[in-house]
Every structure is written in structure tokens, then in C-alpha cells.
């Protein structure tokens, strides 16, 4: 169920230099992935959650969620087994699995080649790998004052709307789902 | 989404990236007069709302959003193969239901789109969906909005492959062969004019590679 990923020790250092003090040099790994490796909650693939999922830490989600996901200033990775029927609000969102719902990524949204997204994306930066399936709209927001964005996200989160998929002006297909308290249903 | 459809989807996308034969994906550059005209309409001057009906193309999405436009993507052809839209008729025959299909596809408010990239979709889409699709696009496009479509000529032959189109410039396309779909029909010019009968104008651009590019103005 919920667990923090264990601290990972660097494994890329070659054996012959392992014991030597190495000068500081820029990492070859993207900064983002390094951030994601730190203290990240983990929802395994056998977990099903119905309701509202919120938190104040980064989350790796490989299970199923139906409802809402709100991480505000934190990052979300939907793993390859992840199945989400929810609107997502987070800082950075990386999708490997399947999402039915709108994604609001404060900083960045990334669709990996295995991603299947049906819903709208609103973000400042977007990365889409060739092979990703996407049905919906992409709206790139201009960078604005951080406080404004925070207010927007807080307002969106407090609105507590259920999963919905909108059409061009938001008046088309819309499926509102009633929210219940978060319920954990491990698959047997 | 049905599991079978997901499997198919991943299969088709894999096919797009690398054909089953193991050959490298066939891609070529192509200049397009229709796209040039289309680009003039959307321009970078003001943000537009653009619908891409082809398979998801990161190149197109990045390029168009980079120009400040809002972009919708609906891969109608892949969606049309979803078994959820199949219904069993009284005579036992299984058929695609346009009603079910359009209950979940091309759901846009009236006059909410500025431009549509239809590519060569009408040549491959199941017959029952073609006219309803055009009617829906007519409704969704604002007056003055444009649609870019590509239509094969008879010389292309029945084995003409389906393509993914990646916009690489104001008038250049990177064309990628997708071996998953077969040509369903070939329209002649009269058919094309009839198809877009309700639109304000239909402009043809003849190409040397067995294509007619068509820019339709709502």
C-alpha cells in the first residue's frame, strides 16, 4: 500500500573510483528525476482507491484511482500499471499508464510512449513521447506569478469537483462522479 | 476503454513507430501547398483552437502549442476500431454504431474550433462515419474556420498506406507510413465537393504523389 521508496544509493559510480573523493560535477541525470527519487510515496499496482487523494509529498502511483488527485506543489508519476479515472492537480505529472480525466500540471506534464490519456492538459510545459495516445485538449499557460498559480491551484483543489472530461468550451461531455471518503480496496 | 482496444491501440502505435516487419518506419519529407494555405489561416498572430484528427503526433502538438494555439487531438480512425461501438443488428450482423461512436467522439460546442487537420482520414474511416463526421466538423468550426484534408487519387492504388503527418514547417510535412489501416475508398472531385457541400468554399491543390490536398473554408 503506502510506502516510502527506500533510500537509493548511487550505483553509477565505477568500482575503481568508489572510494576516491570525487569532485562535484553536474549530474548526467535530469534534475527532475533526481527530485522524484527523494522521499516519494508509492501506491502499488494491487491498490484501488475511490475518492479524493491528496498529499504533500511526491507520489508514484501504479494502482487504480477513481475520484480526484490533488498534490498541489508536489509531483505525480502514474506508473505503467497505473489506471486513473480522476482529475489530477500536481506540480509535475509524468504519465506512463492510463488516465481518464483532466491534468493540471503547475510546471510540467510529460506523456511517456506507453501513456494513454483521455482528458485535457493544462500546464506551462509539456513533453510527449512518440507513441503516446492522447485524446483531449492541450492548453499551455503562460508562466505567471507563483502566488497566483498557487491560488489557482488551491481554488481548483478546494472546489472539489469530481472527475470530468470537458469539450471545447467545457460544456460537452461531462461525467461527474460522487465523491466518497478515500477507501482502500486491495485486490485479492 | 475495453482491454482489447487497449491492446489494439498499443499494437497500432507500435506499428506506427516500427512496422511489424522489423523495418525502420518509412518516413519522408513532403512539401504541401494545402498546409501552406492552412498555416496562413492559423498564423501566429493570435491564439487559435485547432483540432488534429490524426494519430497523436508530438511534433504537431509541440509545434502548434508552441505557436500559442490550443490544440485538441482525437485519433478518430483508431477510436473507430473500439469494439464498444459495435452493435448486433436484428439480422445478427455486427455493425459499427455511429450514434454510439459520436456520443463520445467529436463532442465540441458550436463554432468552437478555428481549424481542423483532417489529413487523409476520410479515405480510411468506415463509411458510416464519414458524413456524420463532416457534419459535426461543420457545426464545430466557426464561420471562416478552415479544414485541411488529403484525398488519394485513383492512381494511388488500393494498397495506399495510411499516414501519420508531422508538421515540420509552414509548408513541409514529415510523412510516416502506418501499415495498420487499409484504404477504404477513393473520392473523386465531385464527391469531395458534395461531402463539403455545406461549407463556404473548397479549394483543391494537386500534388504529384497521387494526392489532392483540399482546404475547406466554413
What labels would you give this structure?
heterodimer; A: 188 residues; mainly beta; six-stranded parallel beta barrel; 2 helices; 13 strands; 11% helix; disordered C terminus; B: 218 residues; alpha/beta; Rossmann fold; 30% helix; globular
Describe this structure in words.
By secondary structure, chain A is mainly beta. Chain A has a domain at 37-154. Chain A has 2 helices and 13 strands; from the N terminus they run βαβββββββββββαβ. Chain A has helices at residues 31-37, 146-159, and strands at residues 3-4, 40-43, 48-54, 58-61, 64-70, 76-78, 83-95, 98-100, 103-111, 116-118, 121-128, 133-140, 183-184. In chain A, strands 7-8-10-12-11-9 form a 6-stranded parallel barrel. Chain B is of the alpha/beta class and 218 residues long. Chain B has one domain (32-217): Rossmann fold (3-Layer(aba) Sandwich), CATH 3.40.50.150. Chain B contains 7 helices and 11 strands. β12 (133-140) of chain A pairs antiparallel with β3 of chain B.
Brief digest:
Helices cover 11% and strands 39% of the residues of chain A. With 188 residues, chain A is mostly beta strands.
- CATH fold name of chain B: Rossmann fold
> Roughly how much helix do the residues of chain A carry, as a percent range?
10-25%
Oligomer: heterodimer
**Weakly predicted, low-confidence segments of chain A:** 3-32, 149-188
Structural class of chain A: mainly beta
CA-based gyration radius of chain A: 18 Å
Gross geometry of chain B:
globular
Amino acid at each position: 500500500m503506502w510506502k516510502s521508496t527506500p533510500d537509493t544509493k548511487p550505483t553509477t559510480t565505477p568500482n575503481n573510483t568508489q572510494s576516491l573523493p570525487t569532485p562535484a560535477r553536474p549530474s548526467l541525470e535530469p534534475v527532475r528525476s533526481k527530485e522524484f527519487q527523494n522521499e516519494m510515496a508509492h501506491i502499488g499496482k494491487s491498490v484501488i482507491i475511490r475518492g479524493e487523494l491528496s498529499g504533500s509529498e511526491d507520489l508514484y502511483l501504479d494502482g487504480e484511482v477513481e475520484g480526484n488527485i490533488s498534490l498541489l506543489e508536489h509531483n505525480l508519476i502514474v506508473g505503467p500499471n497505473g489506471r486513473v479515472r480522476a482529475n489530477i492537480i500536481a506540480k509535475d505529472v509524468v504519465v506512463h499508464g492510463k488516465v481518464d480525466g483532466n491534468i493540471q500540471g503547475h510546471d510540467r506534464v510529460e506523456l511517456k510512449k506507453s501513456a494513454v490519456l483521455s482528458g485535457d492538459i493544462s500546464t506551462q510545459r509539456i513533453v510527449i513521447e512518440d507513441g503516446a495516445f492522447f485524446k483531449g485538449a492541450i492548453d499551455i499557460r503562460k508562466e505567471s506569478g507563483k502566488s497566483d498559480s498557487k491560488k489557482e491551484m488551491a481554488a481548483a483543489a478546494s472546489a472539489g469537483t469530481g472527475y470530468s472530461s470537458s469539450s471545447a468550451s467545457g460544456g460537452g461531455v461531462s461525467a461527474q462522479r460522487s465523491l466518497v471518503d478515500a477507501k482502500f480496496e486491495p485486490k485479492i | 476503454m475495453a482491454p482489447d482496444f487497449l491492446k489494439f491501440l498499443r499494437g497500432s502505435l507500435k506499428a506506427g513507430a516500427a512496422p511489424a516487419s522489423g523495418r525502420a518506419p518509412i518516413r519522408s519529407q513532403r512539401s504541401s501547398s494545402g498546409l501552406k494555405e492552412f498555416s496562413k489561416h492559423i498564423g501566429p498572430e493570435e491564439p487559435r483552437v485547432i483540432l488534429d484528427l490524426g494519430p497523436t503526433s508530438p511534433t504537431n502538438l509541440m509545434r502548434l502549442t508552441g505557436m500559442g494555439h490550443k490544440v485538441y487531438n482525437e485519433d478518430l480512425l483508431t477510436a473507430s476500431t473500439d469494439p464498444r461501438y459495435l452493435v448486433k443488428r436484428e439480422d445478427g450482423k455486427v455493425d459499427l454504431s455511429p450514434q454510439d461512436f459520436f456520443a463520445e467522439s467529436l463532442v465540441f460546442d458550436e463554432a468552437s474550433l478555428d481549424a481542423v487537420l483532417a489529413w487523409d482520414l476520410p479515405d480510411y474511416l468506415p463509411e458510416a462515419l464519414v458524413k456524420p463526421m463532416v457534419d459535426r466538423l461543420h457545426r464545430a468550426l466557426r464561420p471562416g474556420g478552415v479544414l485541411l484534408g488529403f484525398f488519394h487519387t485513383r492512381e494511388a492504388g488500393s494498397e495506399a498506406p495510411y499516414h501519420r503527418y508531422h508538421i515540420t514547417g509552414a509548408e513541409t510535412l514529415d510523412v510516416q507510413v502506418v501499415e495498420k489501416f487499409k484504404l477504404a475508398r477513393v473520392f473523386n472531385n465531385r464527391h469531395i465537393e458534395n461531402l463539403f457541400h455545406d461549407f463556404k468554399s473548397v479549394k483543391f491543390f494537386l500534388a504529384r504523389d497521387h494526392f489532392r490536398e483540399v482546404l475547406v473554408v466554413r
